[in-house]
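Researcher: Please predict.
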Amino acid sequence: MNLIISLFSGFISAFIGITPPGLLNMTAAKVSMKEGKRNAFWFVLGALLVIFCQVYIAVLFARIINARPDIILLLREVGFVIFAVLTVYFLWIAKQPKIKQPKIKKHSKKKRFFMGMLLSGLNFFPIPYYVFVSIWLSSYAIFSFDFTSVSIFVSGAVLGSLLVFYFYIGFFKKIEKKADFILKNMNTIIGGITGLVSVITLINILEHYLG
């Protein structure tokens, strides 16, 4: 049962993290439209290889942090400040983003594979994201840092990422308008999420000091 929960947690975490339109999924969609699904999937394979490494490194780093309760508390306090600032920024300061269409030139499957690796490697967001997610899940006893659970969690994250890429490649024309709508409201969405995380983090901090 715990392994299923680890797989599901990794899957959902990846699905949430990679679903918003970004450089990777938008590029995969554009490659599919201009060069066909085969080249797009080679691009995705390259991206997934790097994502696998990023998630694994993030969880291993989280395991080290998780062994130090004092560091966890410090991270919660720092995280609360960061998420609170981000909430204010995205809800009241930031301008609405405009959709950017990546420029695509025709390349071979091999070049698409390495391009997927390169673009994924340039995206550093997954590491802090999965560090936070795995520690948060562990704090509620949903996830443990043993080798099997970590491997299953990472596999779930890769599968979740693959599913999102598949939807972008296969159904981009149908979701393009919805993607535009999501981008126009992205600041509100992100601000709402960071606001919720700020409240949960603040409650955990208060429970520690008052409990």
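Model: The chain has eight helices and no strands.
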